[in-house]
Amino acid sequence: MAGESPETQKSTGPPHIGAINPAIPPATVARLILYARELGRLRREGESHVSSKLLGQLLSVSDAVVRRDVNHLGSMGQRGVGYEIGPLIQQIRQTMGTNRSWKVALIGAGSLGHALMRYRGFDEQGFQLVAAFDTDPAICSRNIAGIPVLPLEQLETTIAAERVSLAILAVPVDAADAVAKRLAALGVAGILNFAPRTLQKFPGVCVVNVDLASELQQLSFAVVSQQ
């Protein structure tokens, strides 16, 4: 409203998003996520500490790689004792931004979208899937795994009302750029893109591309290389 100071004005967009430390290499980021998964399993089994050697064995990397990766998080380990699992998980989650809750929208409620809506791993990591969107009238107005499927025309109003920060794109390739542009205009800070194409770049928007066919090609190359 007019007359309000910047501090008192209410934002209708998603909350401000911090960035992962750019000094951490992408390969290290990928391993830290896997460390957190294995550390969580060890904690559920009653373990309180873990050595760099054991953590490396669980991920098929050397203990030197583990120590180098964890050093990006600060001084965590103790010689002869190893890493305390609880604080290490907490530090990884803080670095990855998963120590808080994220509101996520899914665009595309077809076969892949259905599978994503039924996946329970999102909630466990603090990602709240608040709504899905589609252009098919036969799918819209349904609830799938407790998640409402809405017409794509409601994208703007819903994302603003829910203050969505992240989006998953599971639309046909020819619709991907147009939908991504709408998401960027709404202030969505990150897009997980399943469409098999490289999206346009939008200022302030982080994009992670997941091309399953390309991943299979990398797998086939690895298999052929071993033969």
Write the layout of secondary structure elements.
Elements: H1 26-44, E1 49-50, H2 52-59, H3 63-71, E2 77-78, E3 82-84, H4 85-96, E4 102-107, H5 111-117, H6 121-124, E5 127-134, E6 143-144, E7 147-151, H7 155-162, E8 166-169, H8 176-185, E9 190-193, E10 206-209, H9 212-226
Parallel strand pairs: 4-5, 4-8, 5-7, 8-9, 9-10
Antiparallel strand pairs: 1-3, 2-3, 6-7
For the termini, the CA-CA separation is 68 Å
- Specify the structural class: alpha/beta
Please tell me the CATH architecture of the largest domain by its name. Answer: 3-Layer(aba) Sandwich
Helix coverage percent of residues? Answer: 40-55%
Number of domains: 2
Shape: globular
Report the uncertain regions: 1-20
Largest sheet entry: 7 strands, mixed
Percentage of residues in strands: 15-25%
**In the CATH hierarchy, what is the class of the largest domain?**
Alpha Beta
- CATH topology value of the largest domain: Rossmann fold
Binding site for NAD(+): 108-113
Function: Modulates transcription in response to changes in cellular NADH/NAD(+) redox state.
DNA-binding region: 34-73
Region (Disordered): 1-22
